[in-house]
Write a structure and sequence with these properties.
Elements: E1 4-12, E2 17-26, E3 31-35, H1 42-49, E4 57-62, E5 65-66, H2 71-77, E6 78-81, H3 93-103, H4 111-121, H5 137-149, E7 155-159, H6 167-184, E8 187-192, H7 195-201, E9 204-209, E10 212-217, H8 219-226, E11 229-235, H9 239-250, E12 255-260, E13 264-269, H10 272-286, E14 290-296, H11 300-308, H12 319-326
Parallel strand pairs: 3-8, 3-9, 6-7, 7-8
Antiparallel strand pairs: 1-2, 1-4, 4-5, 9-10, 11-13, 11-14, 12-13
The structure holds adenosine-5'-triphosphate and magnesium ion.
Magnesium ion (MG) binds at residues 42-43, 83, 159-160.
Length: 334
């Protein structure tokens, strides 16, 4: 059984369509990344999957339970760590977790064990009795994730878990997410607008833009499908030999495009491992020496541009965050 099934899901607000007829399956046990810019529809999709919002049309289910007709069953199986930090800053880490245990109806005799389990996992043991207002952003997020985990959900939803954190802290959070995934074997559905996050953390990624899913695949396979390795090299400036060289390169099927300027050339190819030896072969035939070369493999950025026609804007301070701040008090909703 798939952990999540989404069929032709649409959500209209008064003035906009937040998600537009999306369909998607998330396999049990995978880390699935939902990658898209501000306003793409990531949080709206997550709110529907976690039963906090109702769709306009279409349907979705988590472990076979429909999010509209069977919301209590869905809630039992999920944890939701929203984009805004949901912890109570005036409580200690331990008190926050105790509160979460209460609302998740964890049996009293298991509470201490569960708290120890998650607090050790996110490495906050030393700080457990300190008020969380004294915590750094990264520590707060770790506590927030621990709160979303304590009832051992089958699916953990993480809405932009590292937004606004510096790169070291972001990497640390990825490490915790991997650890959680390994230790609990749960399905993780994580939204992000960081390419690096999707690329490093996720087994599969769905690119969403303007409410529509553009592609779903593994990051590697998305990059491979682009078939655009870029090889840039510089040659000794000998005009005649350079022209002969270019003519020969043009005869190679594997080369899609050649860009030339004063000092270097860039060749676009579907397979650099075959093309690079050929380039050196031709250059030595002609007697033209290559000084240096750089190989650039396609990145997830290139994939994003190719499917959406634009760059992923790295803007975390847009108008959408205003609304999110307003929603801050809407915690996991469990
Ligand atoms: N409660 C709401 N009322 C009206 N419009 C909304 C509401 N929630 C979301 N929207 C709109 O739906 C669209 C998708 O918003 P959503 O929050 O799902 O995007 P997102 O991908 O999570 O963006 P971000 O990266 O900024 O968090 C946006 O145009 C937004 O303005
Ligand atoms: Mg969002």
């Amino acid at each position: 059984m798939n952990a999540i099934e989404i069929n032709s899901l649409t959500k209209n607000f008064k003035k906009s369509t937040a998600i537009d007829n999306i369909s998607l399956s998330v396999k049990e046990g995978e880390i699935f990344g939902f990658l898209g810019p501000n306003g793409a529809g990531k949080s709206t999709t997550m709110m529907i999957l976690t039963t906090l919002l109702k769709p306009t049309s279409g349907n979705a289910s988590v472990y076979g339970f429909d999010v509209v007709t069977n919301p209590s069953k869905v809630r039992k199986n999920i944890g939701f760590v929203q984009q805004e930090i949901g912890i109570d800053e005036y409580l200690t880490a331990r008190e926050n977790l105790q509160f979460q245990c209460k609302i998740s109806q964890i049996p009293k005799d298991q509470i201490q064990k569960r708290i120890k389990e998650v607090i050790d996992l996110v490495e906050l043991t030393e700080k457990q009795d300190e008020q969380s207002i004294t915590f750094s952003g990264g520590m707060r997020k770790r506590l927030d994730i621990a709160c979303g985990l304590i009832h051992r959900p089958k699916v953990l939803f993480l809405d932009e878990p590292t937004v606004g954190l510096d790169i070291q802290t972001r990497r640390k959070i990825w490490q915790y997410i991997r650890k959680i995934h390994k230790e609990f074997g749960m399905t993780i559905f994580v939204s992000t607008h960081y390419m690096e996050e999707a690329d490093n953390l996720c087994d599969r990624v769905g690119i969403i833009d303007h409410g529509k899913i553009q592609i779903v695949d593994t990051p590697q396979s998305m990059k491979n499908k682009l078939e655009t390795d870029m090889i840039t090299f510089s040659v000794i400036p000998d005009k005649v030999k350079k022209e002969q060289f270019i003519e020969k390169l043009k005869t190679l099927d594997l080369i899609k495009n050649i860009k030339i300027n004063e000092t270097n050339m860039t060749v676009q190819s579907s397979d650099s491992t075959l093309v690079i030896p050929k380039i050196f072969e031709i250059s030595s035939e002609i007697g033209l020496s290559i000084d240096s070369f750089i190989l650039n493999k396609p990145t997830l950025d290139d994939v994003f541009i190719s499917y959406t026609g634009h760059n992923l804007r790295d803007d975390t301070n847009g108008k959408f965050n205003k609304r999110k701040e307003h929603n801050q008090s809407r915690r996991r909703g469990l």
